[in-house]
Amino acid sequence: MRRDSIFYKLFQQYPALVFELLKNPPENAAEYKFDCVAVKEPKFEIDGVFLPPEDKKEGVVYFCEVQFQKDELLYERLFAESLLYFYRNRHRFKDWQVVVIYPNRNTEQTDTYPYRNQLNTDQVHRIYLNELGDIRTQPLWVALMMLTTVEEKLAPQEARYLLARSEQEASVPSSRAIIELVTTIMVYKFEQLNQREIEQMLGITLKETRVYREIKEEGRFMGERSLILRQLTRRIGELPPVLRERVETLCLEELENLGVALLDFTSMADLQVWLKALED
Predict the structure, then answer these.
(1) ∠ CA(9), CA(7), CA(93), 5° rounding?
(2) For 2, 40, 81, 138, which has the most beta carbons within 10 A of its beta carbon?
């Protein structure tokens, strides 16, 4: 189950969510924006960063890590990336904080001794979702995070509960976003089920949700790619591995254009020329 992407979708929809997990959130929590930042020399990609408003001088930057698999070098990487980014942007921030979200304590890095000073201060916040309590007593967006950890036998009833609760508590736009997220979580959690079974489980129609549209679009893309590869093979012969891999990297629009162009191909060289022109 790809939980990282689900959590980052949650943060994008509701950036203040991470601050609901903290005892002392910033007063302007609602003004923070969620982003992904890059740090060069060496280059790091930090997926979860909460940035204070740019018009606020000397704000606090929050680094967030969602960790559902044990990583024995997590803190080495996390502190290196966070401190380097803070160093290079020192003029923008007065302080930094780290939030690490685990499903349980067993997922945490075993050897934490080298980081005892950081981990035992109010600067680093370790959240264990299984210790937050009853999912139904949590704020709605926090409950969505917890849904990713609920056992499969209990997940359907909790998902239906959250869908019903979202209609009562949230505004219309937020309610739609919550439906999308609940559906995404359940599709990933029950990958072995088909569309109709997921619909019956949740009591909704997946055709109304973004995740269904994305799945449908992905199916269209895979079908188009398979068709183009078959047409190329029939027209100019079996593709060498290098050319086949290049074709497989094309986006849907490029595949559609190739489907028209290949009608004039007479040799492998024609495909190579077409791909070269695409790069230029």
Answers:
(1) 85
(2) 81
